[in-house]
Amino acid sequence: MVLGLAGVSNAARAYTGEPAPIQPSAFVCEGAEAVAGHKLAAGNGLKVAADPKACFSHMSMYGAARGQVIAVAPSASCTGGRVLEVYEQSNAGPWYSVFEQPICGAGVTVGPKSPWGDWMLTINGVHYMSKGAYFIPVK
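Above: the chain's sequence. Below: its structure in token form.
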């Protein structure tokens, strides 16, 4: 795994008390992690993850053990041919997409921070921040 906040010393992070986000792992399209991703999709009605050709990654926006799962799958309607969703587990237990609709793209990174200090997601150079129930593009 690659840790975020490159260039910021561990001492600076310790001073702020803020955990560094954990950037996404490499996508896996077969094996145990892919099987687990498809099981997650089946049990929670997750659209992109349900695609039999979906690949999976994981990250933690908040630097904690509880993180997010990323699914990417082929899409004829997207420039670049890939669509993705980021899933998070609710406090009640079920998993949900952090986006209202899947986003065209093949990868996601955590950062930068929003003007309010929350971590944003970046896909294809577009920043998305949490607002209400979903992450929305920053204009």
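The chain has a mean pLDDT of 87.
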